[in-house]
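Below is a filled-in request sheet from our internal design queue. Each sheet records the structural input a requester submitted and the sequence that came back. We keep these sheets so that new team members can see what a complete request looks like end to end.

REQUESTER: design group, bay 2
PRIORITY: normal
MODE: inverse folding
CHAIN LENGTH: 534
BACKBONE (tokenized):
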């Protein structure tokens, strides 16, 4: 896809989101859940109710989901774990910074994984926008409001590291064997991460997005969590996916969180309207210094009316080959208005110059990409307590602000849970399961755009996606938000509204084909593949 390796083009490693429910909300959409409409009639206002981060929750309360609608229970679970992981480790750092960076979990030398106790600083090699830490689905470079490249970090907990060590799945031959076992019997074979118990954690994966700062514009430590990398450069946390597996949440549930100043809503009516500066949620009537990913001046200069920002929203189009299944000539229709936000960032699109995605992804510069204005296609909801789309997350956020834990630093008030996605009824902790994902296609027989098929084994469990079924983080799935359609190369699968489960599937892929994966995790794509023998 457009010069970007296939293995990059399919990724959406949103490491941090719901299943772990330890940190941010995260994947994006207007269709907030297959069950949302059914619940509105009996919805209750979602409250924090004990989600204070005092302790880490290994599994949702067995009574919680029954006492209230399950979306609220899942979001509360995610929020509590985010607050816990944001808490001080006793040495001045948030607990999540003690998780193992991916290069410790899967050393590129081929050595066994290693777990190091304590704080582990950000590393330049992980933040320089390498192919593995790029934007999912496209590998595009995201530049912040001051034209500086956003970086990404991926970490896992000790349970995940121990599993890699015990199974040997940090090695290409072991992952290949697991992929073969999955192909032979997806109901039992393959990679299946530990689910933990009521008293011990299951596998957790976090993906974080960081905005770079410099001496001329230091990181705003009062309103954002700031870290320095090994070279002393300052970075500010702007997004997190929390992915967690538990005895109940066998499907690796996603949740995502964002800094409140990331980007405004694309259209009016939501809780984050377009404005010169973002609102300060802690001090009503005040504003923060600037948006992280949106520049008011350039937006107005290009014709923005001050209330909405059009995006590439052309309809998805395709034809079906004679076999009735193969999609051909995939493209996007004309947008409803001239796009001003979430546009294609490649310079070649604007000025016909040659785009070098490879050089950009290797950290040699930003020359191939332009800074673009980012907006949120699914507006942040206002809390109404009526169970409408986004209402549970909005009310939970409002409830937390009213009773924010005193032991947590005030900067964490400036982060917000965006949403969570999971499987209704929840999937088994071991074995493939099927579900439909994406728009229905006119194939024979009809199928969805991103179905989970379990290699065609129709005896595996069938589930339905629930929660925020178009989840996206503006700092991590910028161009894959709902309502956006971009084409990288003619005939390629357009980037459009992919949620977490569209790319993270319950399967095991061999290393490097087209991306390594195990139990919905792209961490396995980092397994080094030995060079071919002459």
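RETURNED SEQUENCE:
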């Amino acid at each position: 896809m457009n010069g970007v390796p296939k293995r990059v083009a399919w990724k959406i490693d949103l490491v941090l989101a719901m299943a772990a429910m330890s940190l941010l909300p995260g994947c994006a959409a207007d269709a907030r859940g297959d069950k949302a409409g059914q619940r509105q009639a009996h919805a209750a206002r979602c409250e924090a109710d004990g989600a204070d981060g005092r302790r880490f929750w290994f599994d949702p309360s067995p009574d919680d989901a029954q006492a209230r609608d399950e979306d609220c229970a899942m979001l509360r679970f995610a929020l509590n774990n985010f607050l816990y992981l944001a808490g001080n480790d006793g040495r001045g750092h948030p607990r999540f910074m003690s998780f193992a960076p991916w290069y410790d979990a899967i050393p590129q030398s081929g050595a066994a994984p290693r777990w190091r106790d304590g704080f582990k600083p950000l590393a330049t090699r992980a933040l320089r926008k390498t192919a593995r830490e790029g934007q999912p689905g496209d590998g595009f470079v995201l530049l912040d409001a001051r034209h500086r490249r956003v970086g990404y970090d991926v970490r896992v907990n000790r349970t995940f590291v121990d599993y890699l060590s015990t199974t040997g799945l940090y090695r290409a031959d072991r992952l290949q064997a697991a992929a073969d076992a999955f192909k032979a019997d997806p109901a039992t074979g393959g990679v299946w991460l530990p689910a933990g118990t009521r008293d011990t954690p299951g596998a957790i994966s976090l993906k974080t997005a960081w905005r770079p700062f410099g001496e001329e514009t230091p990181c705003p430590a009062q309103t954002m969590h700031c870290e320095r990398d090994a070279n002393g450069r300052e970075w500010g946390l702007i997004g997190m996916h929390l992915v967690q597996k538990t005895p109940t949440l066998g499907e690796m549930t996603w949740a995502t969180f964002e800094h409140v100043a990331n980007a405004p809503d694309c259209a009016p009516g939501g809780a984050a309207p377009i404005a010169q500066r973002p609102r300060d949620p802690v001090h009503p009537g005040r504003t923060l210094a600037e948006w992280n990913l949106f520049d008011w001046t350039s937006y107005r200069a290009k014709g923005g009316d001050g209330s909405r920002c059009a995006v590439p929203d052309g309809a998805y189009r395709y034809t079906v080959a004679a076999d009735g299944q193969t999609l051909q000539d995939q493209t996007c229709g004309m947008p409803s208005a001239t796009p001003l936000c979430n546009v294609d960032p490649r310079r070649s699109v604007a000025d016909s110059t040659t785009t070098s995605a490879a050089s950009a992804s290797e950290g040699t510069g930003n020359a191939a990409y332009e800074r673009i204005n980012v907006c949120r296609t699914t507006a942040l909801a206002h809390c109404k307590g009526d169970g409408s789309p986004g209402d549970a997350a909005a009310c939970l956020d409002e409830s937390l602000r009213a009773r924010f834990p005193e032991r947590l630093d005030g900067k964490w008030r400036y982060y917000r849970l965006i949403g969570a996605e999971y499987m209704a009824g929840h999937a088994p902790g071991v074995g493939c399961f099927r579900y439909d994902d994406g728009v229905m296609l006119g194939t024979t027989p009809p199928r969805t755009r991103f179905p989970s098929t379990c290699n065609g084994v129709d005896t595996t469990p069938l589930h339905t996606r629930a929660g925020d079924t178009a989840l996206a983080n503006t700092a991590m799935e910028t161009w894959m938000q709902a309502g956006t359609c971009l084409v990288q190369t003619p005939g390629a699968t357009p980037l459009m509204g992919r949620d977490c489960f569209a790319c993270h599937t319950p399967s095991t892929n061999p290393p490097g084909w087209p991306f390594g994966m195990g139990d919905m995790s792209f961490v396995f794509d980092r397994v080094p593949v030995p060079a071919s023998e002459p």
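SHEET NOTES:
- The two ends are 29 Å apart (CA to CA).
- Residues 1-42, 62-68, 350-365 have pLDDT under 50 and may be disordered.
FILED BY: M.R.
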